[in-house]
Write a structure and sequence with these properties.
Elements: H1 2-5, E1 24-29, E2 35-42, E3 47-53, E4 57-63, E5 67-71, E6 76-79, E7 90-94, E8 97-104, E9 111-118
Antiparallel strand pairs: 1-2, 2-9, 3-8, 4-7, 4-9, 5-6, 5-8
């Protein structure tokens, strides 16, 4: 289904580089054409617009901040405020993510992470 995996939304794939709202996103495809690395830094108060992650990937969290993830219609999917479990220097596996935006709602701290993913799953 399109909304679950982001299939059909190629132009909104997070790696395409449609960046607004003050986020700094760098994309490096690897030589084999099947892997890529994405570095993301979202300053406090900034929003990464609606996008997808069409492929599964490994995320290395360098620093974190409270954030709100919303679906393509603006409904809150996840709000980490008040959880008190900021993570740093941890690794997590995620499957594909459908349409969503991310807002850094934490104090003055930037959220920063690296993602490595395989093209085509």
């Amino acid at each position: 289904m399109e909304g679950e995996t982001g299939e059909g939304y190629v132009e909104l794939d997070g790696r395409v580089g449609r960046v607004e709202g003050g986020a700094q996103i760098s994309f490096w495809p690897l030589e084999n054409g099947q892997m890529h690395v994405v570095e993301t830094r979202i300053p406090a108060g900034h929003i990464v617009p609606v996008h997808t992650h069409r492929w599964p990937g490994v995320h290395y969290i360098l620093s974190s901040s409270d954030f709100v993830r919303r679906d393509g219609e603006g409904r809150v999917l996840l709000d980490t405020r008040g959880r008190g479990n900021a993570v740093e220097h941890c690794v997590a596996w995620t499957g594909p993510l459908g349409l969503h935006s991310v807002e850094n709602v934490g104090g003055a701290r930037a959220a920063s992470r690296n993602e490595s993913g395989m093209e085509g799953g």
